[in-house]
Specification:
single chain, alpha+beta, 3 domains, 4-stranded antiparallel beta sheet, 9 helices, 4 strands, flat, disordered C terminus
């Protein structure tokens, strides 16, 4: 008599999880987990398990998915991807796309844009009866904080200490794209999320102060903080590969004039080292390019090698 087969849904879950495994390990991994599921189900059919068989099988499948994810995305691979140049830009685009889906196509942004682009004065027949046009308040409530936030961001870019000046056009393009994408994500969240928050708040005073004034202040502050973070993040990136630098080492002392406090960072690809001054008024950061002989000490392919 043949042993009972596990339900189809659990077998399909294991089959889908197997596609997450690296190709060289996929067949052996699939046989191992399918065999374990089969053994679990035999015990369940015999009544030797105290818990419900379906709950145990579901827990077993969750463990299989966790194991497959760990094989595919190892911790060093995840850290390597997070330190890459496109991670913050991709995260900002993901926020923008998710907000667009949840807001059904940026309804608030489209409404404000329509008021700005198609603004027309009230008809002459209505002017004697209507002396106040609320459409201007709606536009000002959104555009005034946005203009203030952009002005603060420009001031931070002008007066803040920018990254190493000898960087190429790729370096500065990356800074521009990263800053614009993060600022756009914050603006979209403020437009669409603020409207959703105000629709939930019932008291008029709370809706005006909390969902309007306080939220606008938080948006302006967050806009400036995001701009400053983009500059700080860019300072710690390699001008060649645009990856975040590794192995920070503190050098010098805060009380020394001849050896001020600095942080030495090294590119994992062997492109060079960066000396970051811990003081705001000690001049630009210093980048030291390493020749090709140093790159033999770095193994950039290690995070992608399979076991």
């Amino acid at each position: 008599m043949s042993s009972p087969a596990p339900p189809l849904v659990y077998r399909v879950l294991l089959r889908l999880a197997s596609f997450l495994c690296p190709a060289p390990l996929r067949t052996a991994w699939r046989k191992q987990w399918q065999s374990g599921l089969h053994d679990w189900w035999i015990l369940a059919e015999r009544g030797e398990l105290t818990n419900e068989a379906a709950a145990l099988a579901a827990r077993y499948c969750r463990g299989a998915w966790a194991d497959a994810l760990e094989l595919r995305f190892r911790r060093d691979q995840i850290l390597h991807a997070l330190r890459g140049p496109w991670c913050p830009i991709f995260a900002a685009l993901l926020i923008i796309g998710s907000t667009g889906v949840l807001s059904r196509g940026f309804q608030v942004i489209r409404r404000v844009a329509d008021l700005v682009l198609n603004a027309r004065p009230l008809p002459v027949t209505l002017r004697p009866h209507i002396h106040y046009d609320p459409r201007g308040d709606v536009v000002a409530a959104y555009l005034a904080p946005l203009a203030l936030a952009v002005l603060i961001a420009v001031m931070l870019l002008v007066f803040n200490r920018l990254p190493v000046p000898q960087s190429g056009w790729r370096y500065w393009t990356h800074l521009l794209l990263k800053t614009m994408s993060i600022q756009t994500a914050l603006t979209v969240l403020w437009f669409e999320g603020g409207s959703t928050l105000r629709s939930v708040l019932r008291p008029e005073a709370l809706r005006v102060l909390g969902g309007g004034l306080v939220l606008a202040i938080v948006f302006v502050a967050g806009f400036g903080a995001a701009t400053r973070w983009c500059i700080t993040d860019q300072r710690r990136r390699c001008p060649v590969c645009l990856r975040l630098l590794d192995m920070p080492v503190s050098v010098g002392s805060w009380g020394s004039v001849f050896e001020p406090a600095t942080t030495e960072l090294l590119c994992a690809g062997g492109h060079g080292s960066l000396s970051l001054s811990e003081r705001d008024n000690t001049g630009p950061d210093r980048w030291t390019t390493l020749d090709a002989s140093w790159r033999e000490l770095f193994d950039t392919a290690a995070p992608f090698q399979s076991d």
